[in-house]
């Protein structure tokens, strides 16, 4: 039986098709989930994709967080469902309080679009176990509100408990505190990051295939626990 991974489509989602494609390439069965549907259709994990949910009105992710599908995802994520939030999905996870902190306007106030080098700092999460600790990967980054902020106590706690999962290398592209590109919750089942692994899964479209490991990691974990 193949493992089913849901990908939510909100009005304004942009990268849902690429996320479904990445799941298929990794060997999973992608399942399209609709923002108005509370039912997760028995998926084993969920990806919240990048884009401009609800037109980024109010703040990125602030409206999506109240969608019917998120009600169920928030409950199930607290019970251990693996959830990956990519870019706008990371913003939705912070707005949902599944992850601490917030994403703010890039410090230079411009939209940024570049291939970004990252270091994988924690391989003990549902979405990163296929990487080596300290591995350097390159995946695309494209956003206007990618500056990660949290109070000093939260930042210290994230560092002390190994919950900084990815850090920017070479340049800090948006003013994120402590070069943080991605974090996880205490249990490690919920991971959010600003760069886009789902755009780096095929040699043809590149820039690398470094992003595939997110999807193979969760599939291996799900097979092992089923
Ligand atoms: N690529 C994305 O998901 C963009 C997220 C959000 N709309 C931003 O500009 O920050």
UniProtKB/TrEMBL annotation:
The active site is at residues 87, 196, 198. Pfam families: GATase_5 (PF13507). Gene3D superfamilies: 3.40.50.880. This is Phosphoribosylformylglycinamidine synthase subunit PurQ. It catalyses: N(2)-formyl-N(1)-(5-phospho-beta-D-ribosyl)glycinamide + L-glutamine + ATP + H2O = 2-formamido-N(1)-(5-O-phospho-beta-D-ribosyl)acetamidine + L-glutamate + ADP + phosphate + H(+); L-glutamine + H2O = L-glutamate + NH4(+). It is found in: Cytoplasm. Part of the FGAM synthase complex composed of 1 PurL, 1 PurQ and 2 PurS subunits. It comes from Streptomyces glaucosporus. SMART domains: GATase_5. Pathway: Purine metabolism; IMP biosynthesis via de novo pathway; 5-amino-1-(5-phospho-D-ribosyl)imidazole from N(2)-formyl-N(1)-(5-phospho-D-ribosyl)glycinamide: step 1/2. HAMAP family: PurQ. Signal peptide: none annotated. Its main location: cytoplasm. PROSITE patterns: GATASE_TYPE_1. Part of the phosphoribosylformylglycinamidine synthase complex involved in the purines biosynthetic pathway. Catalyzes the ATP-dependent conversion of formylglycinamide ribonucleotide (FGAR) and glutamine to yield formylglycinamidine ribonucleotide (FGAM) and glutamate. The FGAM synthase complex is composed of three subunits. PurQ produces an ammonia molecule by converting glutamine to glutamate. PurL transfers the ammonia molecule to FGAR to form FGAM in an ATP-dependent manner. Keywords: ATP-binding, Cytoplasm, Glutamine amidotransferase, Hydrolase, Ligase, Nucleotide-binding, Purine biosynthesis. Its EC number is 6.3.5.3, 3.5.1.2.
């Amino acid at each position: 039986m193949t493992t089913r991974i849901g990908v939510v489509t909100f009005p304004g989602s942009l990268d849902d098709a690429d996320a479904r494609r990445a799941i298929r390439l990794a060997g999973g069965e992608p399942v399209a989930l609709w923002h108005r549907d509370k039912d997760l259709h028995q998926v084993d994990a969920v990806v919240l994709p990048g884009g401009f949910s609800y037109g980024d009105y109010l703040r990125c992710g602030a409206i999506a967080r109240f969608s019917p599908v998120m009600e169920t995802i928030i409950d199930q994520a607290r019970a251990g469902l693996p959830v990956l939030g990519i870019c706008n999905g990371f913003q939705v996870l912070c707005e949902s309080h599944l992850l601490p902190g917030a994403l703010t306007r890039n410090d230079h106030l411009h939209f940024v679009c570049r291939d970004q080098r990252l270091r994988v700092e924690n391989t003990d999460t549902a979405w990163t176990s296929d990487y080596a600790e300290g591995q350097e990967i390159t995946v695309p980054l494209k956003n206007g509100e990618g500056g990660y902020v949290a109070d000093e106590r939260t930042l210290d706690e994230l560092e002390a408990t190994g919950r900084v999962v990815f850090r920017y290398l070479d340049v800090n592209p948006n003013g994120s505190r402590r070069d943080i590109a991605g974090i996880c919750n205490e249990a490690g089942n919920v991971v959010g990051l600003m760069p886009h692994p789902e755009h780096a899964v095929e040699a043809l479209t590149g820039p690398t295939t470094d992003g595939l490991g997110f999807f193979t990691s969760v599939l291996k974990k799900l097979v092992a626990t089923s």
